[in-house]
Amino acid sequence: MNYDNILSQFQNGITTITINRPNKLNALNIETIQELHEAFNMADLDKSTKVIIITGSGEKAFVAGADISEFADYDVEEGQELSAEGQELLFNYIENLSTPVIAAVNGFALGGGLELAMAAHFRIASDNAKMGLPEVSLGVIPGYGGTQRLPQLVGKGRAMEMIMTAGMIDANQALNYGLVNHVTTLEELIPLCEKIAGKIMRNSSVAISSAIKAINANFKDGINGFDIEIEEFGNCFGTEDFTEGTTAFLEKRKANFPGE
């Protein structure tokens, strides 16, 4: 499928989705959010895709924020609608995707860019990365899940400071905060993501999907994560992957998971 604002490429079980608006530092606009939704949906439905990597084009920015020109004149109702639709279409959608999503954060990840990275299942950053939620400097707050996911990842106090000051942190500080899992050079960013993706792909995609669902449940109000874990644990026993995995272990051989 052809897109105007993104690129999607499949190779060796990995779909790499690249936000491709370098003249705008890959800023998110409504059209890009829609295209990202479509690309993630297609990758998730493709059984040959085992891992998705999301990144930005060029060396300067993952996503430098939202395209402010689109909503500068919005009223209250329009603002709420923008936030609700964006969260449903992309940010919550990515978080709850059954296929693992790795954010390869190259350069600036600000505002909606950091919110996009935080929606991924985990993050790896290049050493030139800068991250922050500067929305209060514009008289607004993060609207794509930033006030919820940042405290989950770095703790309430650090999230409060980052959001209130509208400041940026560098890659090493993000690593210290637990916001990213690894920091590497820009040249090694995608290769490291692909290396970790390779480790993921050795395992049962069905079990990984269940694990994503169970882990996410712990962060949802009104849901008992332990109950979801019990349910998903039990569901695994009815899969072909469980049969293959346990049989391979008992036969002392490498499992060849069918993904069913």
Walk me through this protein's architecture:
With about 260 residues, the protein is α/β, with parallel strands linked by helices. The protein folds into two domains: about 5-200, 2-enoyl-CoA Hydratase, Chain A, domain 1 (Alpha-Beta Complex); about 205-250. The protein is about 45% helix and about 15% strand. The chain has ten helices and ten strands. It has helices at about 30-45, 75-95, 110-120, 145-155, 155-165, 170-175, 190-200, 205-215, 225-235, 240-250, and strands spanning about 5-10, 15-20, 50-55, 60-65, 100-105, 110, 120-125, 130, 170, 180-185. Strands 1-2-3-5-7-10 form a six-stranded mixed beta sheet, sandwiched between helices. The protein has a four-stranded mixed beta sheet with strand order 4-6-8-9. α1 packs parallel to α2 (about 75-95) and α2 (about 75-95) runs parallel beside α3. It is globular. The mean pLDDT is about 95.
